[in-house]
Specification:
The complex is a heterodimer of chains A (191) and B (241).
Chain A: H1 12-18, H2 22-41, H3 47-66, H4 76-93, H5 111-114, H6 119-130, H7 135-146, H8 151-158, H9 162-190
Helix pairs in contact in A: 1-2, 2-3, 2-4, 3-4, 7-9, 8-9
Chain B: H1 8-18, H2 24-36, H3 38-71, H4 79-100, H5 105-113, H6 130-140, H7 144-157, H8 162-174, H9 178-189, H10 197-211, H11 214-219, H12 229-239
Helix pairs in contact in B: 1-3, 2-3, 5-10, 5-12, 6-7, 7-8, 8-9, 9-10
Classes of the chains: A mainly alpha (191), B mainly alpha (241).
Chain lengths: 191, 241
């Protein structure tokens, strides 16, 4: 019999995150937020605290998938719970929250198994890059790179010519490039 | 990596490569160019990073809007530090407004001395009474109406349960509904064997203060209480004409 090579398709949630699918983010929220909220609430946190750590955990998951670091068949619920829990424990242990008590801690604390050491540093760096963009640039670049809309659709939504969108996109990306080169130059000078 | 300008055709060629929009032939040709051009390789990496930064910003905006849609309230715009900064600013504004518009007499003293009971810890997966625990989660979230509606039927089934009566009263107090809390607290304040006896006396005292019931305040036996006595004496002194 002829041998066949099978390449397993990634789970739907992995494919969804790779293409920036909002429905996938919503599904992750609906399925996995309640457990995280429960954990934060029972450990001196509030609903808003739970929302914050959940968003941080999804960001780490998203980045891990985007960079090919996530095992495709790994359970996103377990991953999200562990990351969120570690983030909340960091808050509880911080100087400003010394009075808080962890009343329940029955799952294994294993940050290293899921999250590469540098991924949070990388997220912080990329956030810093995004913050350099003004609202107009964010509006165009978000639609093109995150929502994956074509230039004609964006032009139609914003009521301008397609060529204008193309030019704005180029100029905005050149602003980011100039910013990154300035940072890179400062780093080299510092060495 | 070149420090000069990057022309638009090169930028768009790199963009098409990073976004995987090239045909197989175009991709192979582009990769051959990269193999011999270190500047191009550096530009590809830089553009890949910048696109990822935009995607990250878009993902976080989308996630934030999903969470806000579900909860109808704020979340942090820039992570913890952003939230804490805005929370501190908001707290300062609210504190200033409360000071300027502060009520007088019993209401003011109630606001000054009342802090909600923090609630009981809810152990995940180990709650002996999941319905009670579910309501406690609502209470701890500040969803007092929800907590009241969940606890009320439990009290009907077990009307002498002091834990239920106490936390129903706490939910009423947190909403400022002191009149509803008083009858619940009166019972527990007289039950010396209840674990909530002492706290119930304190909250009952505060409820009377807010309701302007001078007679009940005067009769309160809290003055000698080792925990609440000092505060009770201060409140009584403040209420004297």
């Amino acid at each position: 019999m002829e041998a066949r090579a099978y390449i397993a398709a990634p789970p739907a949630w992995v494919a969804g995150l790779r293409r920036n699918d909002a429905a996938t983010l919503r599904a992750l929220y609906e399925k996995h937020f309640p457990a995280i909220r429960q954990y934060v609430l029972q450990n001196s946190g509030t609903g808003n605290d739970a929302q914050d750590v959940f968003q941080e955990a999804v960001t780490v998951l998203w980045m891990s998938v985007k960079e090919g670091r996530m095992v495709p068949d790994a359970d996103p619920g377990g991953f999200l719970y562990r990351v969120a829990k570690n983030k909340w424990l960091d808050v509880v242990r911080s100087a400003a929250h010394k009075h808080m008590k962890v009343v329940h801690d029955d799952r294994t604390l294993d940050r290293g198994a899921d999250v590469d050491d540098d991924i949070e540093e990388r997220i912080a760096r990329l956030r810093g890059v995004y913050e350099k963009l003004d609202d107009k640039c964010r509006s165009v670049l978000d639609r093109f790179y995150f929502e994956r809309k074509d230039l004609a659709t964006i032009a139609n939504e914003m009521g301008v010519e397609e060529e204008s969108i193309r030019t704005i996109k180029y100029r905005c990306m050149m602003k980011l490039r100039a910013f990154r080169k300035a940072i890179s130059g400062e780093d080299q000078q510092a060495r | 990596m070149s420090n000069g300008a990057l022309d638009r055709p090169t930028f768009e060629a790199i963009e098409a490569y990073v976004l995987e929009r090239l045909s197989a032939d175009e991709r192979a040709a582009f990769e051959r160019r990269m193999a011999t051009d270190a500047d191009l390789r550096a530009e590809v990496e830089l553009e890949r990073e910048n696109i990822r930064a935009v995607e990250l910003g878009g993902m976080q905006r989308t996630l934030r809007s999903i969470v806000e849609e579900e909860h109808g309230q704020r979340t942090s715009p820039n992570g913890w530090t952003g939230y804490l900064k805005y929370a501190a600013m908001l707290a300062a504004v609210v504190a200033s407004a409360l000071w300027l518009l502060r009520p007088t007499g019993g209401e003011r003293l109630y606001s000054e001395y009342f802090s909600p009971d923090p609630g009981l810890p809810v152990a995940m997966g180990a709650a002996a009474d999941p319905a009670f625990a579910d309501a406690m989660v609502s209470y701890k979230e500040g969803e007092y109406d929800e907590a009241l509606s969940k606890w009320a039927p439990l009290l009907q089934a077990d009307p002498m349960n002091d834990t239920l009566r106490y936390y129903l009263a706490c939910a009423h107090l947190a909403q400022g509904a002191t009149s509803e809390a008083v009858p619940l607290l009166e019972g527990i304040a007289n039950e010396e064997r209840s674990a909530f006896h002492r706290k119930a006396r304190w909250y009952l005292f505060l409820a009377h203060v807010r309701n302007g019931d001078a007679s009940a305040v005067g009769k309160s036996p809290l003055d000698e209480d080792s925990v609440y006595g000092e505060r009770a004496r201060l409140i009584k002194a403040a209420l004297k004409p």
